[in-house]
Amino acid sequence: MLERDEVEVRLVAALGEGLAETADDFRAAFRQSDGLCLPHLRLALSALGDAVTGVVLRETTVAHQERLLRQLREIVRKH
What is d(CA 60, CA 36) in angstroms, rounded to the nearest whole number? Predict the structure, then answer.
């Protein structure tokens, strides 16, 4: 395994630990972020077996995509 791959796996594990915490601070910060790119989202969803973490990842990603879609529609409308 490449060093890059090992680092990605460790970071995804850390993300999972943060999202699994009962305190909502990490989840709130993640929801305010730009989220994960598609390859890292796939990695996270496949690597993190916790159903709660998967739900948070999916819900957050859908919210990010909906926000992006609204922004893109507004750009198209203005141009």
Answer: 9
> Considering Cα of 60, then 66, then 71, then 76, what sign does the dihedral take?
positive
Report the alpha-carbon distance of residue 5 to residue 32 in Å, rounded. 26
DSSP code of residue 22 = S
pLDDT digits (tens, 9 = 90+) for 30-76: 888 888 989 999 999 888 877 778 888 899 899 999 999 999 999 99
Tokens of 37: 């790119």
Per the listing, tokens 């990842």 go with: 57
Q: Which residue bears the tokens 């507004």?
A: 74
Confidence (pTM): 0.75
Calculate the CA 25 to chain-centre distance.
15
CA distances from 6 to 2, 10, 13, 43, 72 (A): 6, 6, 11, 12, 35
Q: What is the mean pLDDT of residues 1-22?
A: 86
